[in-house]
Predict the 3D structure of the following.
Amino acid sequence: MDIIRKKVNEMKIGRNDPCWCGSGRKYKQCHEALDRKIERYALEGCIVPPREIIKTPEQIEGIRQSAKVNIACLDEVAKKIGPGMSTQEIDDIVDKVTRDMGGIPAPLNYEGFPKSVCTSVNDQVCHGIPSEDVILQEGDIINVDCSTILNGYYSDSSRMFCIGEVSEEKKKLIQVTKECCDLALKEVKPWGFMGDLGAVVMEHATKNGYTVVREIGGHGCGLEFHEEPWIGYHTNRGEEMLLVPGMTFTIEPMVNAGTQKIYTDQENGWEVYTLDGEPSAQWEYQVAVTESGVEILTY
């Protein structure tokens, strides 16, 4: 409780002082009412978001503009992807669209990642590295995970693609994974809890006979590529961080057809695979919590 009181006291600011968000407005005309409500939850023992991840309207607009580039990249991939294409060609498409629209591919050189997009095929869970040697075959499924920087603002989303005719089992995995994201989206509401998203994802995936990866999840995103909070999907309702207007983060459960256990390629240190070789699927949205619900920024 002493730690909570200390955090609340750190939030104090004079009502006529400039607001902490940098808007230039007086605190009482800007974030005071929001802060007071957050304080009440903090005193009840809830995990509350730090100020630095609560975005101003101007910042959210910057993220929206970045998101337009991100969406355009995936739309262009959707037009061209098919059997016989290499994953390097997907990387080339994303890099060109991003730069033509004034952006920078966020993954490129991020902590040493060598490409502009992640392309994860079949049993690759995430972080697949594009290559001229990886040729998409009839029956494959692939996740294309695109992240963009525009004017210093970050956006992030991914989609699944079926290459030609795929098995009914793979189609169902892709569909159920998207349903998990859509159900989680409905749980994003001001003064709810992050754990509500994880609970509904886990319930729906399990009901359909699938497992959800534990080690990798969603994340805050907007002013940085990865911000607080980390978002897992093995959670309970009413737990984890409080959802507050101005938060922006990704919803991106990774759902496996078999075991939830995964491993990382030891040679490149990036590509993550299912331990049993069964396929995995992922969809990713970036969202903003609003006063009335949720805004979908990317898809």
